[in-house]
Amino acid sequence: MVRRMHISETGIVTFDRATFFGEVFDYNDGDCCTFLCPFGGGKTQLALEALSYVASPDRQAVIFVMKPKDKTITKWTPILGFETVRDWPPSTVKFFKRAFGKRPPGYVLWPVDTGNIDYDEWNQRNIFTRALGLLYSAAKKRPNIMFVDETFSMEKELGLTRFLRRAWSKGRSVGNGLWAGSQRPAHIDQLAYQAQHLFLGYDADVRAQERYAEIGGGIDPNVVKSIIAQLGRFQFLYINRDERSMCIIDAS
Predict the structure, then answer these.
(1) pLDDT tens readout for residues 26-66
(2) Does residue 4 sit in the same domain as residue 56?
(3) How many angstroms separate the CA atoms of 215 and 182, rounded?
(4) Is the peptide bond before 221 cis (omega within 30 degrees of 0)?
(5) 3-class SS at 208?
(6) Could you tell me if 97 and 1 lie in one domain?
(7) Are the C-beta atoms of 208 and 221 separated by less than 8 Å?
(8) Is the pLDDT of residue 99 over 60?
């Protein structure tokens, strides 16, 4: 049995969020990010905080929302200055706003929920398919970010894996960055684990900790596992796969 190292023994640095996103997080056009953390662990808020630093009128982000209600998204939409739209592309009115230099830093793409599961899934599939395709093509002229918080549902319920795979495997070359969120480090496409930026939250499940260690981006898996097991609530282990570096992002 491998002795679990204390975080202090690893020499890993902890940053508050303002310092991390303002000075440490080096995001380039087309980079992919993956956020993994059980329900209630703060992965959505962390991703939205990250968007507040990197999304802009010249690098717009689109948040894909599948839930009928989402308090975190609702709270952060005005903070980010994003506009909520029900279909893609945005309406003619929003198009003219963009044409005259009033481009928002991003959109919340939130199809109307009717309560009819068959219709709602059909509608989401059509809208999201169109958005994923158009955003990938548009990135060739102007970089963008697609934030899919419910990656498992997007793949397993809507069957859109091939569109996500294209962004994971080819998006970086055209400036189309895919940010993917999931509650477990399993049951989503393996390409999600090859993202340039990994944000891993605490998970009490030993099997999940083992999986985290396996996808640790070239970092010693025992170190990754030890750190994950000791994270506090709303803390995250950040791994930059390109640089093979890591740090802890504090809860605030």
Answers:
(1) 999 999 999 999 888 999 999 999 999 999 999 999 999 99
(2) no
(3) 14
(4) no
(5) helix
(6) no
(7) no
(8) no
Q: Which tokens hold the place of 66? A: 């599948």
The chain-wide mean pLDDT, for the chain, equals 89
**What's the number of domains the chain is made of?**
2
Residue type present at position 2: V
Which residue is listed with tokens 């020499």?
Answer: 11
225 lies in the same domain as 103 = no
Residues near 111 by beta carbon (within 8 Å), at least 6 away in sequence = 65, 86, 87, 120, 123, 124, 127, 128
This prediction has a pTM of: 0.90
Q: In whole angstroms, what is the distance from residue 64 CA to residue 129 CA?
A: 11
User: What is the domain extent for residue 238?
Assistant: 1-27+198-252
- Domain identity same for 98 and 222: no
Task: Count the Cβ atoms, other than its own, within 10 Å of residue 122.
Answer: 12
The pLDDT of residue 96: 55
Residues paired with residue 107 on neighbouring β-strands, in sequence order: 62, 83
Give the mean pLDDT of 97-103: 66
